[in-house]
Amino acid sequence: MPAKKPAALHVRHDTKADREARILAENRTKSERDLPAEAPVALRNHKDAQAVWRRVIREYNALEGKLVSRLDMDMLMDYCVVVEQIHELDAMRKAAYQQWLELGPIAQDSKENLAQARTKGIGLKTQSELEQLALKWVNQVNEAFETVVKLDSRVDRKRSLAMQYMQSLYMTPRSRAGVVPDGKEIPEEPDDMDKLLSDQFEQLVNAQAGSDD
What we know:
The protein contains six helices and no strands.
């Protein structure tokens, strides 16, 4: 069963009493202390995480309703640090990928030089040196490639973790809309006025059908 949405995100046409009861119930579990606009001291040495904190708080403060409070501070700090780590992993991957691009042609040239040396029948010592050099460049290319693959896997896990935080902190369309898993929609209770008009319309249709008979 999906978690209930905060009153600020509730779109069903509840009665005034229902809305007041919902807000009262939420207020009993909410802290009156808001999250600070500036990043906490714990993020002092995390420049990127501080920037994420300020951006997210600005968006929260722009909302009419209150979705988070001081009780959510640790979770939001963890989210900011994870986003910073994602940026770092992206930078590391970019560097490893650039190294792979640069080493590829060098390794290919080394193998071609070795093939030419063998064709020309050069001395054993020189050929051995070329083999070692070619092997060195090929190994470095493989290492750069493996680094890129490992970083891809690592950053995918970090992004998955960040998404879990975003869901809990109402940062995704799904969490804000309160979508039920498996594509099921939350049934909305009919509005009292809509129900009244619908009943009157049905009576009118039935009366018209009776007169036609």
